[in-house]
């Protein structure tokens, strides 16, 4: 919540043509920001932008040291800058040129958390039993099993959770392959100390084919039930759960270095403050984890459009650079092939919050990746294999992208939001409010108030958030867990039979 002790507006860099109002401002107000004083020509809602200097029609308008759009008319200093006078410059696929690898830095582990060490060397932040249906036909069976299994698991493991979905049949080719890939990858997440895979029998996403995607060494804690082959599929499911819980009950938390954490980063329901507070703060967490030898995963490819150059400049190698350009252009082609412009974003809620173009949203969104070297780029449904910052192919949709992060191996996800959402993924999904008003209005949703960046400074806020992450990774429940908000979303890209 803005107080008289806080600044009225904020600018990121001297190169920026605009500042963002941190409180509602009136026409005629004189505002001092970044060494510049302007008298406002318009009322400026909180989170919206005003011009710090004159911008000519047709000129690029800058924020985050980069252009976020083109002025559609002359804009005078002090005017409101938004969709009425700025348009996107995005069109389609681009050619990129590799300028050289970013040099990595030596890492040193300084922090630790209490996690579950797995046989393959990975570490979970939870010891849960996950029920994954191959097809929507047995999704409700999984939910019924999870409810019944609560009594079996009570006090022995961290929980039993079923992840229903409507897919797995009437799909073809790459679309079906994506469903199978995401489910097989979820079955290998370190937070799943045991997995029950439920099949029907006649579905396109055949149980045996899905299991073949999982390495043999990872199947010792996976059980399967094919409903059409069982006299009583519910009884067979409970027997499998009892078997897994007995094994998992021997697992104990132990102290592990922060380098064992796999951190997913995501934003949703953004506002103009997201790029000033919550996303840069999450970027500091990505840098903290990768700086100690851990892994961070950045996704939402459409919300990199217009800001991909910042990530390309940090590629570890030319091979990583080429993979990132391939994934970005492939996603742009996905839009164009469906007759949609690549700039079909931001959402109405984003615009109401002050975000003008997709470039602006993207420049704010990629702040979540900090300044870490981009060490790898992976396809949707793939699992991370390297430390450092991995870019993951997935859309911006909240349910789909948080699921993709968990499938890639994230054991805890940071989710920044300026407008709020209760959504949770299979792993702890910590909501980071971009503003204190949201944090105070929705305490049941929010895990951390990034408005502290304005009150206390970035360093103090980063220290406090890292402490909170370590506590949640060590077992303290995130708000989505308290609220039992756990779900998956699968990216549907093809025809339905």
Q: Can you walk me through this structure?
A:
This protein has helices spanning 139-153, 173-186, 207-212, 233-248, 278-291, 308-312, 318-337, 348-353, 358-365, 398-408, 436-441, 452-456, 458-473, 479-482, and strands at residues 9-10, 18-21, 30-33, 36-39, 49-51, 60-63, 66-71, 80-81, 86-87, 112-117, 123-124, 128-133, 159-162, 192-199, 222-226, 254-257, 262-267, 295-298, 374-378, 388-392, 412-417, 429-433, 448-449. It is of the alpha/beta class and 497 residues long. The protein folds into three domains: 9-87, Archaeosine Trna-guanine Transglycosylase, Chain: A, domain 4; 128-250, Rossmann fold (3-Layer(aba) Sandwich); 258-482. Helix 1 (139-153) packs across helix 4 (233-248), helix 2 crosses helix 10 (398-408) and helix 5 crosses helix 13. The mean pLDDT is 93.
| Number of H/I helices | 14
Mean pLDDT: 93
- Give me the secondary-structure category: alpha/beta
Biggest sheet, strands in spatial order?
19-20-18-17-21-22-23
Radius of gyration: 23 Å
Beta content: 15-25%
Outline, from the CA principal axes? globular
**Helix amount, in percent?**
25-40%
Domain SAF: 16-87
GO molecular function, one term: lyase activity
Pfam family, one: GD_AH_C
Protein name: Altronate dehydratase family protein
List the defining traits of the structure above.
497 residues; alpha/beta; Archaeosine Trna-guanine Transglycosylase, Chain: A, domain 4; Rossmann fold; 3 domains; 7-stranded parallel sheet; 4-stranded antiparallel sheet; 23 strands; SAF; lyase
